[in-house]
Amino acid sequence: MTTHSAFSAHFSRVFSATQCAKRHSHAPPFLLSLVLKMAAGTLYTYPENWRAFKAQIAAQYSGARLKIASTSPAFTFGQTNRSPAFLSNFPLGKVPAYQGDDGFCLFESNAIAHYLSNDAIRGSTPQAAARVLQWVSFADSEIIPPASAWVFPTLGIMQFNKQATEQAKEELKRVLAVLNQHLNTRTFLVGERISLADITVACSLLWPYKQVLEPSFRQPYPNVTRWFVTCVNQPQFKAVLGEVKLCEKMAQFDAKKFAEIQPKKEAPAKKEKVSKEGGKPQQQPQQQEKKEKKKEDKKPVPAEEEMDECEAALAAEPKTKDPFAHLPKSSFVLDEFKRKYSNEDTLNVALPYFNDNFDREGFSIWYAEYRFPEELTMAFMSCNLITGMFQRLDKLRKNAFASVILFGVNNDSCISGIWVFRGQDLAFPLSDDWQIDYESYTWRKLAVDSEECKTMVKEYFAWEGEFKHSLTYMFLRENAKTGIRMHVAAEEGLHIFPPAEL
Amino acid sequence: MALRELSSLEKCLGLKKPNKYGTQGERKVPVLQNNNGAPLVGLVTIASHLVHEAKKTVLLGNSAEERAVVQQWLEYRIARVDNCPKDELKVILKELNHYLEDKVYIAGNVFTLADILMYYGIHRIVVELAIQEKERYLNVTRWFDHIQHYPGVRHHLPPVVVLRNRVYPSGHH
Ligand SMILES: N[C@@H](CCC(=O)N[C@@H](CS)C(=O)NCC(=O)O)C(=O)O
């Protein structure tokens, strides 16, 4: 219990479906049962972990609600996963690791992805399910070893060794040939629909396709590339991976990065000999500085001897600079507000706190509305749209708060919300990672002192009220006039589903 | 022919109420009498209208570019595939086979109306192919099999059997 709250403290509010049921007892029961049946929980990982992607994409397909804990304070790789609390749930201390809101814990990325799937992507017959497992195992045992051996040096997280790289290339060619043959007559790996097999194998090939499989290298395997491009462009993949750009030029050993990351583990360097032997990397100018180290690694070096794959991958992550660094410090402590909002009464505690402490210079308040309500169909899909957006905006969490509401019923709904950002401008242009969703919304900055703003903040934070300042209101009235469904929804004080905030 | 296709499309789109269609001219161009306004004429126009009615406009493409490609292939279907003389069918298959080499769907990376209407339009050609020819037009066959298995698409058309493993080793040219 303590473990859980420690890790989830930074999330603005952890919802359980029952809470939701109590609050909106008039909501159609079938929607609620849908929520109850879907897994909901937290995935611990370091950022941009391809193993975690498998689980995240599976969750996109199934509609399982997955929070990602990848940055501090929720999760700090190397610290959180070494803590006794974490180890008692996940004895290996490795990530990805999953903890359900119901306490159910899992490690091993494939198991997590399986758990977060639905039957359609797990394979709905014993044969199909077995084939899915076949490809999942294939990915782990045939693709990952050569892919890592080849790609890691190009990321600067493993020493380059010519022989090892050449061997890995050959192995990967053999694997790609097998896949190419299989996909000659097939659209996806198992059956005629995307399954966990496609998710797993595509994620395993993600680094190679981004980093080293340049056009001439992949040319003999057109079926694999066709399949890969199709997979990573499905909305459910895109929601997790963003835009995947295929490699144009095979990346080479990144000696500079390797040098930057490596020293901690390096034995004291011996300065005398400067060697230039067979395992020499390519033309990286910075490489002189550490020629002296290289003579120690003349033979192929397995990853374990260098640096843990994951520490390394993490270290290789460019340290993203704070997009809000240019702003002066603010007196409004967003995290404190979020804690109040999560744990205490909204109208009596959280809202007064917000009104008393809000810093109008340091923050701004925005009303956002989804531009394509006519394209919203099933509520759970719209729910994915919202939670997917929040996932993609994960790194904005520290500097934003939002309460976004889906109004209406299946095939007749709209989305709108109130957003609070650091700064006076829309935050999204500040980072490439935040560009995916915001253009699908119209954004209106609210005058902090206006009645309108006060009312909307109150209504959207508390999820109740008339909502008559938003276009949503007009939408509701329109439909109330012309159709029965929205009328019912409006009379019930709105059917709000799902409550979701950043 | 076009009328059965439209009725299958209605089902595919999940439209509950079937429309009544007429035809026009000797080519039997389908016509949909609209309550409020001018009649809609032609397969593509009516099909696009049905997609809107079903609120599934994603089927028309997700970006401006994708929408253009969908339209292009809908036109191709009408202009090239329909009324194609028998001796030119092979040309169409060849064109499509080439086009589909690096694609799973006709437009973009997702299933669209172009896939549905192309599948309806080309069915009569594919159903006639011998095994060896199916292997020659491997990309068409693979695409066709995928679309005929797509939930809710097939309806009025009989399934075409597709073999996964080559019978003729050098069927591909
Ligand atoms: N087979 C596992 C591998 C997990 C794994 O190796 N996790 C690494 C990160 S890539 C880790 O958490 N290492 C931390 C440690 O060993 O302390 C899976 O697929 O989940």
Automatic annotation (TrEMBL), chain A:
One of its GO terms (molecular function) is translation elongation factor activity. Residues 320-484 form the EF-1-gamma C-terminal domain. InterPro entries: EF-GSTs (IPR050802), EF1B_G_C (IPR001662), EF1B_G_C_sf (IPR036433), Glutathione-S-Trfase_C-like (IPR010987), Glutathione-S-Trfase_C_sf (IPR036282), Glutathione_S-Trfase (IPR040079), Glutathione_S-Trfase_N (IPR004045), GST_C (IPR004046). Transmembrane segments: none annotated. The keyword DNA damage does not apply. Keywords: Elongation factor, Protein biosynthesis. Residues 39-124 form the GST N-terminal domain. Residues 264-279, 288-302 have a biased composition (Basic and acidic residues). One of its GO terms (cellular component) is nucleus. The keyword Membrane does not apply. Residues 264-310 are annotated as: Disordered. Residues 125-253 form the GST C-terminal domain. It comes from the Eukaryota. EF-1 is composed of four subunits: alpha, beta, delta, and gamma. Probably plays a role in anchoring the complex to other cellular components. This is Elongation factor 1-gamma.
From TrEMBL, chain B:
GO terms for cellular component: aminoacyl-tRNA synthetase multienzyme complex; cytoplasm; nucleus. GO terms for molecular function: translation elongation factor activity. One of its GO terms (biological process) is positive regulation of DNA damage response, signal transduction by p53 class mediator. Pfam families: Arc1p_N_like. This is Eukaryotic translation elongation factor 1 epsilon-1. The keyword Ion transport does not apply. SUPFAM superfamilies: GST C-terminal domain-like. InterPro entries: AIMP3/p18_C, Arc1-like_N, EEF1E1, Glutathione-S-Trfase_C-like, Glutathione-S-Trfase_C_sf. Gene3D superfamilies: 1.20.1050.10, 3.40.30.90. It comes from the Eukaryota. Residues 49-170 form the GST C-terminal domain. The keyword Chloroplast does not apply. It comes from Triplophysa tibetana. Keywords: Elongation factor, Protein biosynthesis.
